[in-house]
Amino acid sequence: AFALVEEVLPDLRAEMAHYVQAIVPVGFFEERHLSASYREAIGTLYLSLHPHPMTMVEALIHEFQHNKLNALLELDDVLENAHEPLYPSPVRPDPRPLHGVLLAVHAFVPVARLYERMIERGDPRAGESRFRDIVRINREGTEVLRQHARATPVGAGLLAELVRWDEHYARVT
């Protein structure tokens, strides 16, 4: 997973080299993947092993992004209304606070970028349908954030970047 990130997103891999302190294996599940990150354990990624390499790459990037956002949240809030009320989530069946929607969108932006670059290169490991699914997830989540998020001064820049990526993917898909 690290090798593919290095090949396709070398800047992100360089960031990972500075942040990631430990990867904790949490089992093996052939039918599904489980992963987690905790604000109390920045630098640690909890990942189950999975037989599909792209699942592992996505999980690595996704959990790393959670770590980056958790590190930012140690310094400053990004949303004034982060924890209530609840809104539809593009990745979960249950309503989530905006904090959860933000975590999802922020985690999937570089995953989309990975697939976009792999598709541009003609890499057979890249699934165009998975890329479109991720773009759709991000579009739905970004729209929830656009409509409801009240950003702090620090959060305004973060939200603007997510909107910029959403607009980029609206043009390329």
How does the SSE layout of this entry go?
Elements: H1 2-8, H2 10-19, E1 22-28, E2 35-36, E3 44-49, H3 53-75, E4 86-87, E5 96-97, H4 98-120, H5 128-148, H6 153-172
Parallel strand pairs: 1-3
Antiparallel strand pairs: 2-3, 4-5
Helix pairs in contact: 1-2, 3-4, 4-5, 5-6
Termini gap: 25 Å
Structural class: mainly alpha
Largest sheet: 3 strands, mixed
What sort of overall outline do the alpha carbons produce when their principal axes are compared? globular
| Number of discrete helical segments | 6
What is the gyration radius calculated from CA atoms? 16 Å
Averaging pLDDT over every residue, what do you get? 95
In terms of per-residue confidence, which ranges show pLDDT below 50 for 5 or more consecutive residues?
Answer: none
The proportion of residues forming helix, as a percent range, comes to 55-70%
- Give me the strand/helix succession: HHEEEHEEHHH
Please report the total strand number as a whole number.
Answer: 5
Please state roughly what percent of the residues sit in beta strands, choosing from under 5%, 5-15%, 15-25%, 25-35%, 35-45% or over 45%.
Answer: 5-15%
Placed side by side, the strands forming the largest sheet appear as 1-3-2
Structure characterization notes:
There is one protein chain. This protein is mainly alpha-helical. The chain contains 6 helices and 5 strands. It has helices at 2-8, 10-19, 53-75, 98-120, 128-148, 153-172, and strands spanning 22-28, 35-36, 44-49, 86-87, 96-97. The strands form 2 sheets. Strands 1-3-2 form a 3-stranded mixed β-sheet. A two-stranded antiparallel sheet has the order 4-5. Helix 4 packs antiparallel against helix 5. The longest helix is centred in the middle third of the chain and has 23 residues, at 53-75. The chain is globular and about 40 Å long. The protein starts with a helix and ends with a helix. The relative contact order is 0.13.
